[in-house]
Amino acid sequence: MKKAQNKKAPVRKTTEKKAGATRGNSRAAETDKMLTQKKELALQIIERLKQAYPDSGCSLTYEKDQAWKLLVSVRLAAQCTDARVNVVVEELYRHFPDVDALAKAPVEEIEKLVHPCGLGNSKARDISACMKVLREKYGGRVPDTMEELLALPGVGRKSANLILGDVYGKPAIVTDTHCIRLVNRMGLVDGVQEPGKVEKELWKLIPPEEGNDFCHRLVDHGRAVCSARTKPNCGKCCLQDICAKKLG
Ligand code: SF4
To answer: Is 178 touching ligand 1 by the criterion CB < 6 Å?
Structure first.
């Protein structure tokens, strides 16, 4: 009796193993198919947004040879509009026109000037600390690697990607609120809200050299047509026939 039972067991196990492998293979094939479809959708969206917004760019003003100003602006832009930041920094730079002057400036003085952007104290502290590191470690230059940028006070992945893409022309994906809202609505990602995870998903779909401009165009499209505040204007949207319109 015992011998007969032992003989049957491996046959059942082998059959279950084969069935499991078949299920695994078909899941993998389904995942590959979905990824291919999303890549194709991403390419179509990129092309149409290029046509609709040929001149998209960063809406924070700074000079390319003064990348430190973009670091300051992007920190001030947290929970504040880019338009307001662009006005506030004019006064800030009248008082403190370069990295050295800002690094030496008392935090309270910076805070007074950046107060209209909100969160004045923490923004002023970060700007002060960041300018000190730029001066002491990089001779006033803004570093050009993700690792070094993330080590600067007040700099997260969104800001670091913006610097890499805009200043240094490197592959970058900036996952701000417009980007996260739009790529979910369009069906490029499915219910992903955490910026780091959205970035990871988009890297699988967007050609690296397109990432930076694509994100700038999403901002323009979000402001013009696919708004967070009002109902998206799908009837006037250049993507209406290909967008998943997941409006939740
Ligand atoms: S079709 Fe509608 S939901 Fe989709 S991107 Fe356009 S405005 Fe947004």
So the answer is: no
Residue 198 lies inside a defined structural domain of this protein = no
What's this model's pTM, rounded to 2 decimal places? Answer: 0.86
Residue 120 lies in a domain: yes
Q: Specify if 87 maps to a domain.
A: yes
* Number of domains composing the chain: 1
3-state helix, strand, coil in the chain (%, to 5): 65, 0, 35
DSSP string, 54-102: TT---SS---TT-HHHHHHHHHHTTTS-HHHHHHHHHHHHHH--SHHHH
Q: pLDDT grade, residue 2 (50/70/90)?
A: very low
Tens of pLDDT, residues 54-97: 999 999 999 989 999 999 999 999 999 999 999 999 999 999 99
Residue numbers of the domain that contains 158? 67-167
Q: For a pocket test of ligand 1, which of 48, 181, 183, 234 has the largest count of ligand atoms closer than 8 A to its C-beta? A: 234
How many angstroms separate the CA atoms of 118 and 176, rounded? 18
Neighbouring CB atoms inside 10 A of 36's CB total 10
CB of 239 shorter than 6 A to ligand 1: yes
Structure tokens at 178: 């417009």
Q: Are 140 and 68 in contact (CB under 8 A)?
A: yes
CATH number at residue 151: 1.10.340.30
186 lines ligand 1 (CB under 6 A): yes
Q: What pLDDT shows up at residue 124?
A: 98
Domain for residue 52, yes or no? Answer: no
Gyration radius (Cα) of the chain, Å? 24
Catalytic residue among 100, 176, 200, 245: 176
